[in-house]
Amino acid sequence: MGKTLQRRAAFIALARALAVGVRGGPSLGKRLAALPRMIRATGRGEYDGGLRLALMTAATAYIVSPVDLLPEIPLAIFGLADDAVMVTWLAGSVLAETERFLEWEERRASVVPGEVVG
């Protein structure tokens, strides 16, 4: 239970830091709202984010899983470090990939579908 509360507090702190720290790019709300669209577009084969989404899914599963590579109880701070590294990597990946996806959506909206007549 303590581990879950620590993770929850870490996620809350991370969300606050991201909301304040994102300047000039899309807001955190826009990025999070883009996640379902990004997953759908990747599933349909329209967007090339399959490997990155798979890695982010694996990182999320590792963070949420009660089984750790480095357990917290016998290894104390080292046991928490692996979770912290994964949360940091996941947050950075989500920010980078959602920004990339939003740029892809903008470019795609400016393309007129059709065929080239020669």
Largest sheet: none
How many E-type strands? 0
Beta-strand fraction estimate: under 5%
Class by alpha and beta content: mainly alpha
Unreliable residue runs: none
- Indicate the overall shape: elongated
Query: Mean of residue pLDDT?
Result: 79
Put simply, the count of helices is 5
Order of SSEs:
HHHHH
Helix content: over 70%
Radius of gyration (CA) equals: 18 Å
Distance between the termini: 67 Å
Structural overview:
The chain has 118 residues and is mainly α. It has five helices and no strands.
Summarize the structure.
With about 120 residues, the protein is mainly alpha-helical. The protein has five helices and no strands.
Key features of this structure:
0% strand, mainly alpha, elongated, 118 residues, single chain
SSE diagram, text form:
Elements: H1 2-21, H2 28-43, H3 50-64, H4 72-75, H5 77-109
